[in-house]
Amino acid sequence: MITSILVYGFMMFSTYYIGIRYRDNLTLGSTLTILSIFVFFSAVRYDVGVDCLSYIKSYNHVLQYFNSDRKDSEFGFIILMKILAFFKCSSTVFLGTIALIQIGFFFLALRREKYLYAYLILFLIATGYYFSWMNGMRQILALSILVYAISLKDLKLKALTCIFASFFHTSALLMLPVVFVCYFYNKIWISRIDIKIALIVIAQLLPQAIGLSFILSKVDMVMELIGYNRYVDAASIIKQNEQSLALGPRYYILVLLGVIITIFSKKIAEHFKDSLFVPIYNLYFIGLILTPLFRSSLHLMRFLMYFNELSFLAVAYTFCYLQQKKPDAVYNWAFFALTCMYLLISLYTADNTDHLLYQFSFNK
Questions:
Q1: CA 318, CA 272: separation in Å to the nearest integer?
Q2: What is the pLDDT of residues 273-313, one digit of tens each?
Q3: pTM of the predicted model, to two decimals?
Q4: Nearest Cα to 288, choosing from 245, 317, 249, 323?
Q5: Read out DSSP for 8-23?
C-alpha cells in the first residue's frame, strides 16, 4: 500500500505542481513533462487494472506470431499492436503507448483550455477512474478520441473522428448521435438546478421502489443477440467498479460530488465560456442519473463508461472554478479532500484481487 500511495501521490501532485507553476506560460516542455510522468508510471505498472495482464499476454502473442489471439479486438487496436510488434517493442512500450494516446487526446481536446492540464491527472487518479483506464484500455482509447471529436468545430470532421474512434471500440458508433446533439444543442440540457437535484435523488430511490432487475436482464439478452457480448473483458471491467457501485462510502462520495458539481454547473458554464464544460457536464449528468438505474446490467454499465468516465473532468472544471473564484476558501480544499477520500478508501480496502495496488513490472 505504501508503494501505491507514493506512486499515485507523486503522479497526482507533481503534475498538479507543474501545471500550476507554469499555468500562465505552459510551454511544450512542461506539457510533455506532465505527459511523461503519466505515461512512465502507466507503462511500468504490473497487474494494475483487472485486464492488464490479459492485454500484455495478447500483445506478446502478436509480438511472437504477428496475429491477435483476441476475437473481440477491433481493427485499429490490432494494427496498433502490429506496428509496435514490427519494431519489436516490449510490452512496457505497448502499455505506455496506449496511455499516451489515451491522455494525449484529452490534452488535444483541451488545447484551448490549458489551465486544466494541472488538474487532469490529479483528479483522474483521485476519483479512481485511472484504474478503469488501465483496464478497459480499448474503450478508453475510443472515449478519448470521442472527447477530441466534441472539441472540433467542423461537423464532417467530428463524424470522421467518431468513426475513427470505432476502430478501437465498435460501440463508439453508438455515441455518434450524442456527439451531434452536443454540437447542435450546446447548452446545459436541464437549466434548473432544483430539477437536476430532484432527478439525482429519484434515480437513487427508484431502483429500490420498483424491480428493475428483470427488465434489465431482458435488455442484456437483447444486447447479447446483437453481439455486444463479444467483449470478453466486460465482466472484468465491471469487477473493477463493482465495489464503487455497491451502496457504500465510495458510491455515495461519487453521488455527493455529482450534487456539488450540479449546484455549481451554471456558474461554471458562465465562467468558462466557449469551453468543453457544457458538453462534458451534459454527458456526465446522463451517467450520474442512469448509473443507479442500470447497475445490475453488465452491458448497459459497460456502455455507460462513455459517460461515467468523464466524471474526473467535471471534477477538474469544478475545482479549477473554485480556485479561480476564491483561491484560499476552505470549501475548495474540502471539495478536494472529499474527492481524494475515494482513492484513499479504495487503497485501504484493496487487496491483490482488486488490481488497484501499484506494482512495478521490473520487480516481477
A1: 10
A2: 989 999 999 999 999 999 988 887 777 888 899 999 999 99
A3: 0.91
A4: 245
A5: HHHHHHHHHHHHHHTG
